[in-house]
Design brief:
This protein has a single domain, classed as Peptide Deformylase (Alpha-Beta Complex), CATH 3.90.45.10. Helix content is 23%, strand content 38%. Bound molecules: zinc ion. The site of zinc ion has 4 residues, from loops.
Length: 182
């Protein structure tokens, strides 16, 4: 399967509200190809998640894969690569926390964004079966970031203090050492 180009900030498809996937569209070759393209592109580009609009397909589909390990934001539990179709996010607590987010569609940049930290996600899996998953902390942020792509939003829209927006090398040099001290 070809690896797709990831669209970058400024491409109008990233700003479109994506269409829901109809039940008839599951179990089609196009749908299988879309999932495979998303997987191949995520593996090639690296990263935690990828949404269909980022490869130019305006449908409400995203994939997320969490590798276990210790991060700046604590110990993460592994989540195998999972397909989310037509996801809906319910915020369970308005308590927020901020993280330095990055995005394949905004390469080379990091920005500090605060989001709710306890959410319930309802979605259809790749077989069109209804599922729910409850998320807290950094993972709640990851899921909201990915699903924002389905509504034409990017993390940069949520940066409230533009002083907390940086190129990655400068982030690594000046910001990360302070975070790691905390
Ligand atoms: Zn993104």
């Amino acid at each position: 399967m070809p690896v797709n180009e990831v669209l970058r900030l400024g491409h109008p498809v990233l700003r479109r509200v994506a269409d829901e996937v109809a039940l008839d569209d599951f179990h089609t070759l196009e749908f299988a190809n879309l999932i495979q393209d998303l997987k191949d592109t995520l593996v090639e580009q690296g990263g935690i998640g990828l949404a269909a609009p980022q490869i130019g397909v305006s449908l409400r589909v995203a994939i997320i894969e969490i590798e276990a390990g210790l991060t700046r934001y604590g110990e993460l539990e592994a989540m195998p690569l999972t397909v989310f179709v037509n996801p809906k996010v319910k915020v369970l607590s308005l308590d927020t926390a901020g993280y330095w987010e990055g995005c394949l569609s905004v390469p080379g940049m990091r920005g500090f964004v605060e989001r709710p930290q306890h959410i319930l996600v309802s979605y259809l899996d790749a077989e069109a079966v209804s599922q729910t998953i409850e998320l807290t902390g950094f993972l709640a942020t990851v899921f909201q970031h990915e699903f924002d792509h389905l509504d034409g939003k990017l993390y940069v829209d949520h940066i409230r203090d533009m002083r907390l927006f940086a190129y990655e090398p400068e982030f690594d040099r000046f910001v990360a050492p302070q975070l790691d001290q905390e």
